[in-house]
Amino acid sequence: MGKKIASVIGKILLPLLVTLLLLTGTLYLMLQKCCNGPSMAARDLLIPTLLETGQLKFLASLVCSEEEIQEIVNRNSMEAMSAEVDPSLIRIDREENAAQDTDGGEADGPEETFDENGIRIEEISGRAFFAKMMIVKDPASVCVASTYPWTATGKNLDKLVSDAGAIAGINGGIYVSKENKGGQPLGVVVQEGQITYNDPSGQTGTYMIGFNTDNVLIVQDLSGMGRSDFKAYVEEAHIRDAVAFQEESSDKNNHFVQLIVNGEARKMDGQGSGANPRTVIGQRADGAVLMLVTDGRGADGHLGATAADLIDIMQDYGAVNAANLDGGSSSTMVYKDAYEMASVTFYYQNSSWRLPTAFVVKPAEE
């Protein structure tokens, strides 16, 4: 009996093992060809893309030396931005917004329509990605939802949205994604003016991304701030809702935050980054909030969006300020209990990873 069981197991496992070895060998040869082939552009896109992933960073060092990797990263890098957000560039006319109905237009631009919740969603097809842009007319309706008080396990985006009494949302700030538990945020979290997570110096390059009480999107470098410094800053700057993301390029992390500040796009070499799923939040001069989510990592054959792609899109939509949020497998968008953009991870392809925070949109008041 034991021999029969062993024989059956062998017949099942051996083909699987052979298939796995063939796939691994094929992948390795493809990487070698890409990195050592005639196309420098393909290599310059692939290596930064791998470095931005959570689990596949090691593949870059399998086919390129550390010196080659650094050269490639340098050819696709972004210059630092020192300017801080100028809130005066955002002019939110609440009376004018209230006077316009859902099929009204803007005086200085083409007619713009929104649904009953002041939301419009548009599809965008790029060179190597598919994306959706959610435009939210009233920035006061955008806030942070979370799983606070924090536990080991986070929630899927649709659950975060519904539990907050919201109608829509995108994934939020950086968090501990190990084992996809998603319950622990990193950096900072602010909700309705109250700090619910405060560790700005817990990692390098922490940026706060959120809204003040005037409903202006603020992107603030927290370098050098401790817990007491951040508490004072929230009070002085009247921050009402915010999360954090990280600006760092190293062996461990390849993250970027600032894309557009005060109407000025970030300068970069090459594409600025690799191509991956992305989540971006921005704001137009009239206060409307721009929420962008792209796919990638093989979803529908797409590799993803680069930093240059994100800047181009946000400029096309009139962003005065725009910031990159947590991306990769976390990038998701929900509207009316349905996933407009779901995680690219195979086992969460109709849902999202578990998350501790999200930017959500409250429904319009009746």
Share of helical residues? 25-40%
Spatial strand sequence of the major β-sheet: 1-2-15-14-16-12-13
Average predicted confidence as pLDDT? 85
Main sheet?
Answer: 7 strands, antiparallel
Q: Give the overall shape, derived from the CA principal axes.
A: globular
Order of helices and strands: HHHHHEEEHEEEEEHEEEEEEEHEEEE
Question: If helices are DSSP runs of H or I spanning 4 or more residues, what is the number of helices?
Answer: 8
Q: Which stretches of 5+ consecutive residues score pLDDT under 50?
A: 18-26, 98-107
Structural class, please? Answer: alpha+beta
Distance between the termini: 71 Å
Computed over alpha carbons, the radius of gyration is 22 Å
Number of strands: 19
The proportion of residues in beta strands is: 25-35%
Count of all domains? 2
Task: Tell me what you see in this structure.
By secondary structure, the protein is an alpha+beta fold. It has two domains: 2-75, no CATH class; 87-361, no CATH class. 27% of the residues lie in helices and 25% in strands. The chain is built from eight helices and 19 strands. The chain has helices at residues 2-36, 40-51, 57-63, 66-75, 94-99, 157-163, 227-237, 307-316; strands at 119-125, 130-136, 142-146, 168-171, 188-191, 194-198, 206-212, 217-221, 239-246, 248-249, 254-255, 258-261, 264-265, 279-284, 289-294, 319-324, 333-335, 338-341, 357-361. It has a seven-stranded antiparallel beta sheet with strand order 1-2-15-14-16-12-13, covered by helices on one side. A five-stranded antiparallel beta sheet has the order 3-19-4-17-18, covered by helices on one side. Helix 2 (40-51) packs antiparallel against helix 3 (57-63) and helix 2 (40-51) crosses helix 4. The chain is globular, with a radius of gyration of 22 Å. The model is unreliable at 18-26 and 98-107 (pLDDT under 50).
